[in-house]
Amino acid sequence: MPAASETPARTTSAGPAPRRTTSQRMDALARANDIRTRRARLKKDLKAGRVQIHGLLLDPPEYLQTAKVFDLLLAVPKYGRVKVNRILTHCRISPSKTIGGLSQRQRNELVGYLRR
After folding, report:
1. Residue 98: beta bridge partners?
2. For 61-90, how does the pLDDT look when each residue is reduced to its tens digit (9 = 90+)?
3. What is the CATH number of domain 22-115?
4. How do the domains of the chain map onto residue ranges?
5. pTM > 0.85: yes or no
6. Residue 98 DSSP one-character state
């Protein structure tokens, strides 16, 4: 069995994964931890009613671009799995869709539905 430092890079359909230095990996880890912390704080604010979901959907901050719409809607008070799935189905949005991946039509339709 090869040592950890001799392990070949994983290959994907696009080719081998790029090698990263320790500092690059630590920087990526720090960025990921910062994003997770900011999202957790935002979800608490949504749950407490200090932040409205409408503004976040129409003009999402950078750290929210890769978050799932489903997870963000679950943080809104009185929205459970069944209601969120019903809303996403009505707006023709996949539950695995990210905030950054929403089209303008999907954003507008979702915000319009939530404002009813």
Report:
1. 68
2. 999 999 999 999 999 999 999 999 999 999
3. 1.10.8.50
4. 22-115
5. no
6. B
